[in-house]
Amino acid sequence: MIEEALRTLTEKERAALVLRDLEGLTTEEVAGVLGSSPTTVRSQISSARVKIKKFRDRYLRRRP
Amino acid sequence: MKCRHVEELMPLYVASDLPAAEMRAVADHLQNCEACLQLSHEFRASQGWLQSYAPPALSERFYTGLQESVMREIQAGRRPLFFERLRERWFLNPAFALAALLLIAGAVAMAVYMQQGEKRVTQRAEGTDVVPQEQQPRKDQDIAPFEKPNQMITRADSSHKGKGVRHPIRQIVEVSLPEPFVDEFENPDEIAWQEPVIDQEPLITEIPGQHEGVKPNPDMLRIELQTSNPSIRIIWFTPKAEDARKTDTE
C-alpha cells in the first residue's frame, strides 16, 4: 500500500519524503544528501505529504 | 493569519518543520478555527499511517556488533595478497629485506653484463669493430712510389700542350730506371751523365724558365726533355757550358 502511495510522487518528492519521514533525517540533513537547499526540501516535502494524504483519503473511501 | 495560508503551511506544521514564529502563528489560528483544526488532525493521521511503515529504529550497539560480524566473515574468506604476506614477514626483519635487495641488484648487474658481452660478440662477427687508422697495416698501393727501391720520380706538367702556362704538379709518375742507372744513384756524388731515351732533341734555352718552387738563376741552363709519354717531361737545370768546363778543370 505504501509503495502505491509513493508511486504517486515525483522522484525528488519521493526521495525527500522517505529521507525525512521514514529515515528520520532533519530538513538540513536531507538538503545535504540531495544537494538542495532547505527551502527547496521543505517545498518538496509539503507537496509530497499533500499527495500522500489525498491517496489515503481515496483509499479509505474505497474501503467498505 | 488566513485559513488559506494556514492550509498551505499545514503539511509542515504537523511535522514541526516550520520556523518557531510560523509555528506559533498557526497554533494561534487553530485555536480559533475549527476547519483548520480538523485539517491538522487529518494530516497528523496521514503522517502516522506513513510512518507506520518506517523501519524499526535499531540501537547503536546492534549496528556495531553487526559491522564487526560482517568484517570477520570478509576477512576469513579472503586470501591475503602476495605483497601483504611479504610485508608481514619482511617488514620487521631488515636483514631479510637487505638480502633480497642485494640479490635483485646482483641479478640486474649480471643481466647487463651478459647483454654487453653478447653485443661485443655480435660486433666481431660482423666486422664492425673499428681498428684505429694508424694501427691498420699499410697496403702496397698506399705506399708512395719514391719509397720503393731503385725507382726515380719525375715531375710531370701539362705545359707541353703549348698554352704557355705553367701548371702546378698534377701527379707523381713512377719511372723505372735501367739497372746501370740504379747503381749510379746509390752513390749520388758520382752520378754519370747518360743520354736519356727521348723522342726528340732536347729543348735547351738559356732563358731561365719559371718552374714552380725554383727561383730563376741566370747562370743556369734549363733543359727540358719530352718523353714518349706526352704527359711526362723531364726538366732539369745545369750550369752553363763555360762554367761546367771550369768546374771539371778544377
In words, what does this structure look like?
The complex is a heterodimer of chains A (64) and B (250). Chain A has 64 residues and is mainly α. Chain A has helices at 2-7, 11-22, 27-34, 38-62. With 250 residues, chain B is mainly α. Helix content of chain B is 47%, strand content 12%. Chain B has a three-stranded antiparallel beta sheet. In chain B, strands 1-2 form a two-stranded antiparallel ribbon. Chain B is elongated, with a radius of gyration of 61 Å. The N and C termini of chain B lie far apart (159 Å). The relative contact order of chain B is 0.05. The A-B interface holds A 2, 5, 17, 20-24, 27, 42, 45-47, 49-50, 52-53, 56-57 and B 8, 11-12, 14-15, 17, 42-43, 45-47, 49-51, 53-55, 57.
By DSSP (H or I, 4+ residues per run), the number of helices of chain B equals 8
The largest sheet of chain A, given as strand count, sense and whether it forms a barrel, is: none
Radius of gyration of chain A: 13 Å
The strand count of chain B comes to 5
Brief descriptors of the model:
heterodimer; A: mainly alpha; B: 250 residues; mainly alpha; 5 strands
How are the elements arranged and paired?
The complex is a heterodimer of chains A (64) and B (250).
Chain A: H1 2-7, H2 11-22, H3 27-34, H4 38-62
Helix pairs in contact in A: 2-3, 2-4, 3-4
Chain B: H1 3-13, H2 20-32, H3 34-51, H4 60-76, H5 82-90, H6 94-126, E1 151-156, E2 171-176, H7 179-186, E3 203-205, E4 220-226, E5 233-239, H8 241-249
Antiparallel strand pairs in B: 1-2, 3-4, 4-5
Q: Brief overview, please?
A:
The complex is a heterodimer of chains A (64) and B (250). Chain A has 64 residues and is an all-alpha fold.
